[in-house]
């Protein structure tokens, strides 16, 4: 019946929620990476291409937390942040999006990312987003202390 299907679905969701809540930091971190990959998947290619940035440089950030100082990468990050509406093309941070797109549902971590990382004021938007991205990385590393974030 529809009622039992709804009940089973509810149980499944509850079980998954409990599993997620008890996951180790490494699993949480992998989830964060997966969530970020999903957030940028539709714009990653166009941003890398338009800025002439290397997929390897972006992959080094996602998988190892290693930031190249390439100008092209910095501007590709800007493109990603604008494309996901975390920041406007004029440099205005969208607080709600910045928090939601951290890759975690942990509200304390979301708030920490915003508090720590929204205040950069570099006139050059590529440089500013690069600093925001590195700050976000450090904040996530501090919150979860996960192995994938060790450089």
Automatic annotation (TrEMBL):
GO terms for molecular function: odorant binding. Residues 1-26 form the signal peptide. SUPFAM superfamilies: Insect pheromone/odorant-binding proteins. One of its GO terms (biological process) is sensory perception of smell. One of its GO terms (cellular component) is extracellular space. It comes from the Eukaryota. InterPro entries: PBP/GOBP (IPR006170), PBP_GOBP_sf (IPR036728). Keywords: Signal. This is Uncharacterized protein.
